[in-house]
Amino acid sequence: MSDPLYIERDGHRTWLKWHRGRRKASDPVFTGSRILEAMRLGASVEVDLVIHADHGCAILHNFELDAETTGTGLVRETPASVLRELNLRGNDGQPITDKVMLLEDLCALLAKETPHPNALLQLDFKESHAALTPAVVANFGASVAPVADYLILSGGDFDAIGMLTDSAPKLRSGYDPCYGESLARLQATGDYQTFVSEALATAPKAEMIYLAYDIVLAADKAGFDIVAPIHAAGKRIDAWTIRTVDDTTIPSIHRLLDLKVDQITTDDPERLKAALKQ
């Protein structure tokens, strides 16, 4: 089977984004080997960023260390030297040999092995602009600048995204307007047009708009094509996250492809591509 990079349908290409660096559901998250593989193949891949005690970013999703690593306590209170000695945990919660990476570690790996021209690594910033200090911004810019051509920075606080992208001029940006009970509010109001308009107005420089896939499908069911106005604004759309690929999610995947989303975030790109081929 070919590598799980994208799906072509009716002349439109939809990329399969390797969520948290996973090629398949059994993969542990955020391992350097999988991320480098994705970048070498020309895949779209995503990792998360959380600020640590030395004014840099760790490649982790949670603010607490316990669930993802062999450490304890808050990432924010843990120095870089300690983080680098911690092991990641696998899907079963047991420690694996891979260590926690910092943003500068990952960028250094990418600089050593030139990624495929189509590769795109999404850095999903989990914090708000209130957490940013001049040192965090400066360290971020110094880390990503050498490989910025292959990166896109995303998050739900576009003020934070703007501050960070200013530190690395070639860095692209994306925006995720989904937060809290977004779907419930939209289903109650039905005002998908305002939701899209506000997202585009909030993040005029964003190249990608990241939407929870159930919002995309709920809008479609309500008779509103949420993809079209985003494309009309010259932006691409990512639908997140298909966690399992089975009989319950395959119809949703087909509909997202029909709607021509530009990217589907999934924990199992390999199975998703294989299921569609079947």
UniProtKB/TrEMBL annotation:
Coiled coil: none annotated. It holds the Pfam family GDPD. Gene3D superfamilies: Phosphatidylinositol (PI) phosphodiesterase. GO terms for molecular function: phosphoric diester hydrolase activity. Residues 37-270 form the GP-PDE domain. InterPro entries: GP_PDE_dom, PLC-like_Pdiesterase_TIM-brl. GO terms for biological process: lipid metabolic process. This is Glycerophosphodiester phosphodiesterase. It comes from Devosia soli.
